[in-house]
């Protein structure tokens, strides 16, 4: 049985100003230190303008979590107004970056091809992509969720140059469960996460794929997270709403440490 360290990642989305973000990071650091949580990898992904402030809390407070961005562009620099290069993220202390979130695919027209380029650029800069996938309600009702997500993984992960499983994280987030209060069941999550793992084995081989963390996301909260984590191919959670308070998020992390 592979021994993958569980991961709980918080996606703050477009919430928390710079000062609110610094306060939340400080509160989370205090809560995690007080609870002396260990054995779980924790990542927080604030909005871009908060990154430097949260990095400051991590540095000065030795906060027990890593820093992630919510998006990146694949070019190194240049005339791409409004975009952020991977090297800029590294320079402020990011070691993770969410890519391919369904909100970016849906509202901003990101394609699998874009996501693949972003992953390659991040990996080249030693930033770990948290690469998101997931089906719509329509696809699920048609019973095509496994086929759909497997195709996303094949396109998003094609040709990635990784030599170990800790260079990539996958997040399975069924779109119909995001921010809706409607969670997938642990069995729904395992069905798709298991298929994701098999696809990762085809792409990267058993040794690497067995070490890649596959997270569940979609209305995950302290009360339901353990049900997901108990499933064989679910190694953690990507958390939206419930990551916006130090109390709720640290409770989830403590559950994952159990
Ligand atoms: P919620 O936890 O708010 O449903 O959001 C999930 C998500 O999209 C995390 O990336």
Write the layout of secondary structure elements.
Layout: E1 6-11, H1 18-35, E2 40-45, H2 51-61, E3 66-69, H3 86-91, E4 96-99, H4 102-108, H5 112-124, E5 128-133, H6 137-141, H7 145-157, E6 169-172, H8 186-204, H9 206-209, E7 213-217, H10 225-229, E8 236-239, H11 246-257
Parallel strand pairs: 1-2, 1-8, 2-3, 3-4, 4-5, 5-6, 6-7, 7-8
Helix pairs in contact: 1-2, 1-11, 5-7, 7-8
1,3-dihydroxyacetonephosphate is lined by residues 11, 101, 173, 178-179, 217-220, 238-242.
Give a structural overview.
The protein is of the alpha/beta class and 258 residues long. The chain has one domain: Aldolase class I (TIM Barrel, Alpha-Beta Barrel), CATH 3.20.20. It is 44% helix and 15% strand. It has eleven helices and eight strands. Strands 1-2-3-4-5-6-7-8 form an eight-stranded parallel beta barrel, surrounded by five helices. Strand 3, helix 3 (86-91) and strand 4 form a beta-alpha-beta unit. The longest helix is centred in the last third of the chain and has 19 residues, at 186-204. It is globular. The chain starts with 5 loop residues before the first strand and ends with a helix. The relative contact order is 0.16. The chain binds 1,3-dihydroxyacetonephosphate (13P). The site of 1,3-dihydroxyacetonephosphate has 14 residues, from strand 8. 1,3-dihydroxyacetonephosphate binds at residues 11, 101, 173, 178-179, 217-220, 238-242.
Short précis:
By secondary structure, the chain is of the alpha/beta class. It has helices spanning 18-35, 51-61, 86-91, 102-108, 112-124, 137-141, 145-157, 186-204, 206-209, 225-229, 246-257, and strands at residues 6-11, 40-45, 66-69, 96-99, 128-133, 169-172, 213-217, 236-239.
